[in-house]
Specification:
This protein is of the alpha+beta class. The protein has 2 domains: 5-73, no CATH class; 88-144, Nucleic acid-binding proteins (OB fold (Dihydrolipoamide Acetyltransferase, E2P), Beta Barrel), CATH 2.40.50. The chain is 41% helix and 24% strand. A 5-stranded mixed barrel has the order 1-2-3-5-4. Strand 4 (129-136) and strand 5 (139-144) form a beta hairpin. Helix 1 (5-20) runs antiparallel to helix 2 (30-45).
Length: 145
C-alpha cells in the first residue's frame, strides 16, 4: 500500500471524527467518521482519484451513513416509564380548572398553579369549570364539565 497524502488525510480524518464522538453527545460525528473511513478504503483501492471526486464521494457516503442511522438505528422512540416528562401540556390533559378569563371567540385563559395558560374551546363565561382535553405548545384545549 502506497501511503500518499490523500490516504493519510482520510485515515486521520476518520480517526479524529471517531475520537471526537467522545466529546460530542448524540452520535453526531460517528457517521461522518465512518464515511471518512470508507473514503480511506476507496482511496487505497483507487489511488488516482481526483480531489473533487473524493469530496463528492465523501458527501455521498456521509448522506448514506446518516440515512442508515436514522432509518435503522432510530426506528422508534425509546420506551420510557414517564412518557409525558418535559411535555407539560400532555401532563395537564384530564385536569380540571376554572376559567380565569371567559372563552370568547374560541379563546380564553385559565390559571393552573402559578401559571396562566391560553385555552381554546366553546365560548364560556369566566368562572366555568372546564376539563383539559389536549393542547398544542402553550395553548390548551378545554371542554365544559
Amino acid at each position: 500500500m502506497n501511503w500518499n497524502l490523500p490516504l493519510v488525510a482520510w485515515g486521520t480524518l476518520a480517526l479524529l471524527l471517531m475520537a471526537g464522538e467522545a466529546l460530542v453527545p448524540g452520535a453526531a460525528l460517528l457517521w461522518f467518521g465512518l464515511a471518512a473511513a470508507a473514503m480511506f478504503v476507496v482511496v487505497a483501492l483507487v489511488p488516482g482519484l481526483s480531489f473533487a471526486a473524493q469530496a463528492l464521494l465523501f458527501v455521498v457516503f456521509s448522506f448514506v451513513a446518516v440515512f442508515a442511522w436514522r432509518r435503522w438505528f432510530r426506528r422508534t422512540e425509546p420506551v420510557t416509564d414517564q412518557p409525558t416528562l418535559n411535555r407539560r401540556t400532555a401532563q395537564l390533559v384530564g385536569m380540571h380548572a376554572v376559567l380565569e378569563r371567559g372563552i370568547e371567540n374560541g379563546r380564553g385563559r385559565v390559571q393552573i398553579a402559578d401559571a396562566y395558560w391560553d385555552v381554546t374551546g366553546p365560548d364560556l363565561p369566566a368562572g366555568t369549570r372546564v376539563r383539559i382535553t389536549g393542547g398544542e405548545g402553550m395553548t390548551l384545549s378545554v371542554e365544559p364539565l
